[in-house]
Design goal:
- With 329 residues, the chain is of the alpha/beta class.
- It has a domain of 171 residues: Nucleotidyltransferase, domain 5 (2-Layer Sandwich), CATH 3.30.420.
- Helix content is 38%, strand content 14%.
- The chain has 11 helices and 8 strands.
- The strands form 2 sheets. The chain has a 5-stranded mixed beta sheet, with helices on both faces. It has a 3-stranded antiparallel beta sheet with strand order 1-2-3, with no helix packed on it.
- Helix 3 packs across helix 5 and helix 4 crosses helix 5.
- The radius of gyration is 26 Å and the shape is globular.
């Protein structure tokens, strides 16, 4: 639109009634959403042909969703900036970008149903898009720690949400045996308190942080010496100072690597060697992680690693534009 036409368009705004203004605001919001998504796609469009790898191409019209299409000069096949990517079959990239913005914005993320109603989509579509978005957040955790390093574990209740194992058992008990685990609301009611080491249905998550801001959450199968050593050992610098609780695995690790180790006492009356050596940063991360998971009522264990990366992306100011670009690679 030329500048003169745009000026005339703005002058007509004074003639609109309140209902028309609201409709215009919604249309402008939709247009802005589409333009932002298209700008992200076009920003990644200057690449080789995804079919043959040739760098020679020419513009070849646009798709029904107004995405620029190209034609390869070698294989003569057409492609766009999202061909061959994880969002190649998402035909409403503007709405998908809104899902990313909700996931990684400053406000707490909305539930799937609330977000579906807001965007006018089916809840299953929003859930599928959210899983696609989570796949772009892998590798957010830091892998190198130095200086004073804090390490501890937190626990998440094992969940098979969506597996329908109890539904099958109640429908046909003879064919489908009773699942070996309780339902989520039975914990704490039948003698299985959710305390450390008292339930085999707790999933340990190793948390590491240093004073420079590096953070790592890693889902580990157990708290054995070999598991913690295998996970934590490659992350620590040779001059690192490890702070942890009295778990013997950390003591064995520090001795094997020859690094200094301070045990943080947690019982009343016990004193630490210095106020500088603590695990308060890790404990704060644990608290924030529990607050982040609370609205989801316990994610399925098969998706727990994705939720961990989602949490790290949110506290690390990982933007929706960066996530969108990852999905276009």
């Amino acid at each position: 639109m030329h500048h003169h036409e745009f000026t005339q368009f703005l002058k007509h705004f004074d003639l609109l009634d309140p209902a028309q203004i609201e409709e215009a605001r919604a249309r402008i919001s939709d247009a802005r959403r589409r333009k932002e998504a298209l700008a992200q796609i076009e920003g990644s469009g200057a690449r080789e042909c995804p079919h043959c790898g040739c760098g020679k191409r020419q513009k070849w019209g646009k798709t029904p969703t107004n995405v620029q299409r190209y034609r390869c000069g070698n294989c003569r096949r057409t492609f766009t900036g999202r061909t061959g990517t994880r969002i190649a079959r998402i035909h409403r990239p503007g709405l998908f970008f809104d899902v990313l913005r909700d996931m990684l914005g400053t406000r707490p993320p909305s539930s799937v149903r609330v977000l579906a109603r807001r965007l006018g989509l089916n809840k299953h579509t929003v859930w599928r898009w959210r899983l696609i978005a989570l796949s772009a957040l892998s590798g957010i955790s830091d892998k190198a720690f130095s200086g004073i390093v804090e390490a501890d574990e937190t626990y998440q209740k094992e969940s098979r949400k969506g597996s329908r194992e109890w539904v099958r058992h109640q429908r046909d008990p003879l064919t489908n045996p009773k699942p070996p685990r309780m339902r989520w609301y039975e914990y704490g009611k039948k003698g299985v308190p959710m305390l450390r080491g008292l339930s085999k249905w707790q999933l340990p998550i190793l948390t590491v942080a240093d004073r420079s801001g590096a953070r790592c959450f890693e889902r580990i199968p157990n708290r054995n010496h070999s598991t913690i050593n295998r996970t934590l050992s490659p992350m620590l610098a040779t001059d690192a100072v490890l702070c942890s609780d009295a778990h013997p695995a950390y003591r064995a690790l520090s001795k094997a690597q020859g690094i200094e180790h301070f045990i943080v006492r947690s019982k009343p009356g016990q004193k630490t060697m210095s106020a500088s050596y603590h695990i308060q940063n890790v404990n704060s991360l644990h608290s924030r992680f529990r607050d982040f998971l609370r609205p989801f009522r316990g994610p399925a264990s098969k998706n727990l690693s994705c939720y961990i990366q989602w949490f790290l992306a949110r506290i690390g100011d990982f933007s929706s534009a960066e996530a969108f670009q990852r999905l276009l690679l």
